[in-house]
Amino acid sequence: MKVVAIVGSIRKESYNLMLAQYIEKKYSNQFDLEILRLNDIPMYNQDTENEPPQSVVDFKQKVKEADAVLWVTPEYNASIPGVLGNAIDWLSRVDQVMIGKPSLIMGASMGNLGTVKAQGHLRDILFAPGLGSPVLQRNEVYVGAAHNKFDSNGNLTDESTVKFLDSVIENFVEWMKLYV
Ligand code: FNR
Fold first, then answer.
1. Within 6 Å (CB) of ligand 1, which residues are found?
2. Distance 1 CA to ligand 1 centre (A)
3. How many domains does the chain divide into?
4. What pTM value is reported for the model?
5. Strand partners, 71
6. Locate the NADPH-dependent FMN reductase-like domain: which residues (predicted)?
7. Distance from the CA of 172 to the center of ligand 1, in angstroms?
8. Each residue's pLDDT tens digit in the chain (180 positions)?
9. How far is the CA of 179 from the centre of ligand 1 (A)?
């Protein structure tokens, strides 16, 4: 199975990127994970949505070809980051590549609540008509205090988080088979 991870942070040392990279390595025997970064996605513009820039064409194509999407995002000002909302706007238009595609949401933040508000907003957004993505319920991964949970090589070292992630990924793999 092929999964793409959309990372909602474009910074180099992103904890959310670390989390996606950890999942890519740890569960490589369960699915292929390709991490998509949003650094080269220009601002959505309705004037160009039918003939978007090449980076957007490539981004949408990768999402279209994936069996499922893993959203790994920080919380910015109690919601999703602008770069993520912008990418979602592109995905929601024209060929609407998210419709019917299963999603799993997770996120890491330095605060204790671990992106709980951002994830709630993202879940609502994914139910919008232009997205129409079924989201795995009851498997909510909030990695709070992220600066204490990764080592200097980007490995997730917090044992309870590792164990919980194992169970969520197991549930995700079983559930996504319903849609493949
Ligand atoms: C933040 N941060 C933050 N954290 C949080 O838990 N709730 C919030 O509302 C916000 N808001 C916020 C706004 C802006 C503009 C920035 C730059 C940061 C802190 C955030 O969790 C922290 O910077 C993470 O490390 C960002 O994720 P990455 O880049 O490490 O993946």
1. 9, 11, 14-16, 74-78, 109-111, 113
2. 31
3. 1
4. 0.98
5. 6, 105
6. 1-147
7. 26
8. 999 999 999 999 999 999 999 999 999 999 999 999 999 999 999 999 999 999 999 999 999 999 999 999 999 999 999 999 999 999 999 999 999 999 999 999 999 998 999 999 999 999 999 999 999 999 999 999 999 999 999 999 999 999 999 999 999 999 999 998
9. 33
Q: How far is CA 67 from CA 5, 36, 107, 136, 178, in A?
A: 11, 14, 20, 14, 11
Which structural domain, as residue segments, surrounds residue 145? Answer: 2-176
HSE of 102, CA atoms in CB hemisphere, 13 A: 18
Strand partners, 33: 3
Could you give the ipTM of this predicted complex? 0.99
CATH label of the domain that carries residue 76: 3.40.50.360
Which of 6, 109, 112, 122 has most ligand 1 atoms within 8 Å of CB, for mutation?
109
Q: How many A from CA of 94 to the centre of ligand 1?
A: 31
